[in-house]
Write a structure and sequence with these properties.
The protein has one helix and 29 strands. The chain is mostly beta strands. A hairpin with a 7-residue loop joins strand 20 and strand 21. Helix content is about 5%, strand content about 40%. The strands form seven sheets. A five-stranded antiparallel beta sheet has the order 1-9-8-7-6, with no helix packed on it.
């Protein structure tokens, strides 16, 4: 991967050294600026604020190449809020833990599928608990070294989390992100509402707005193993179809695709997942009652040009199938599809037939107060990561993380310590 952190062995060795030293965190000064009007492209450069690695204890044996930093103890009382995973069992969890001086945002990392954990530095930003708040709420990694924390602010690391850099100013708050290659595509809320900007974040932390989706106030990004990126926008306030766009060049250009959801099935942005070239799964939301919501699963085998109904709920709410709970994220790999829903409980459902039939997943605790699923993603070889979390108060969170090794059918709890 030709990324700035991998340009030389010297850079990696330097990051390893930085990860083993005692360091202090310096706070990032935020300077919000108005949305640029002269041009749709905006160059955003990292600030000088960074966080560095704490004193580290010996980390467990790791696959080569090893991420940096080495890490230290897991913060006592750590609660996961979101996560990211790569093949070979590398997992990051973004969360919080009690501390003496805010922000108490924390990150823990495992190199062996959740058996052993280490605490690593986190951005000097609070966890964002509500719309319009500052801070971060999600995390993504493209490689063992290159990652981002976002929502609504955007921070990046090129040394596995030894140092984090705030990208400021942003032309809008980040409402979604998807990894493509060694870069990131983000969706930005436009000041004043009524539109969403789609932008690329390059290896040099340059953010360039490449497309504006008019009439959208929210939406979801999803990436495919072939490098394609998809964006699904919620319908305008007056109703109508959901807008769906695809980029085959890492977010540089976008093309409209046929909307999979319309009419009574377009009550919000559909949840999208792309398990491979030209294959897309979309879950549309229908009417709901008593903690349930009708859902329609749509599938495309031609890159979103045409759609067919794979599954539709017929049981009026409340029900015990995928209609249980409000629509959450969907993830797909091969013919395996996993769907998260939440309302009175946090549910996971799995399909081994590309969405045509569904069963309830097992091994996780659905009685989490109905907190939404913040992370649902596959990471190769049938491994999948799921995180559910919600803010009990601005300073207190409830969350749980789970890992599956069989395509989402069964799960085990992750307990960083």
């Amino acid at each position: 991967m030709a990324r700035r952190a991998l340009t030389s062995m010297t850079a990696v060795l330097a990051a390893l050294l930085a990860g083993s030293l005692l360091a202090a965190c310096s706070a990032a000064a935020e300077h919000p600026t108005p949305r640029p009007t002269a041009s749709p492209a905006a160059r955003v450069t990292p600030t000088s604020a960074t966080t560095t690695a704490p004193t580290a204890s010996a980390s467990p044996s790791t696959p080569a190449p090893a991420p940096t930093p080495a890490g230290g103890p897991v913060p006592a009382g750590f609660v996961p809020v979101a996560g990211a995973a790569l093949p070979a069992g590398v997992i990051w969890l973004l969360g919080t833990a009690p501390c003496g001086s805010a922000p108490c945002t924390s990150i823990v990392r495992s190199l062996d599928g959740g058996v052993h954990w280490a605490g690593i530095p986190a951005p000097r930003a609070p966890l964002a608990s509500a719309a319009g708040a500052t801070g971060v709420s999600r995390i993504e990694f493209a490689t063992a070294l290159d990652g981002w924390a976002y929502g609504p602010q955007l921070w990046s690391t090129d040394d596995g989390g030894a140092r984090w850099h705030a990208l400021t100013p942003l032309p809008g708050g980040v409402i979604g992100a998807a990894v493509t290659g060694d870069g990131l595509v983000v969706a930005l809320s436009v000041s004043g509402g009524g539109a969403v900007d789609l932008a690329r974040v390059s290896a040099s932390d340059t953010l360039t707005v490449t497309h504006t989706v008019a009439g959208a106030s929210s939406g979801q990004l999803a990436s495919s193993p072939d490098g394609s990126v998809w964006f699904a926008a919620a319908p305008p306030p007056g109703g109508g179809s959901t807008a769906v766009l695809e980029s085959g060049d890492g977010g540089s250009t976008w093309a409209a695709r046929t909307p999979p959801c319309s009419g009574s099935w377009a009550l919000g942005a559909p949840s999208l997942a792309s398990p491979g070239p030209d294959r897309v799964v979309a879950v549309c939301a229908g009417s709901g009652a008593a903690g349930s919501q009708l859902k329609r699963v749509m599938a495309s085998a031609d890159g979103g040009s045409t759609w067919s109904t794979a599954f539709v709920t017929t049981t009026p709410p409340p029900g015990r199938g995928i209609e249980s709970g409000d629509l959450g994220p969907v993830a797909a790999a091969g013919s395996q599809v996993v769907l998260g829903t939440s309302s009175g409980a946090s549910n996971l459902f799995v399909s081994a037939s590309a969405g045509t039939a569904w069963t309830a997943a097992t091994g996780y605790n659905p009685q989490t107060g109905g907190t939404p699923w913040t992370t649902l993603a596959f990471a190769g070889s049938g491994q999948a990561l799921a995180v559910t979390a919600g803010a009990v108060s601005p300073q207190r969170w409830s969350g749980a993380a789970y890992l599956s090794a069989d395509g989402g059918a069964t799960w085990r709890a992750l307990s960083p310590r």
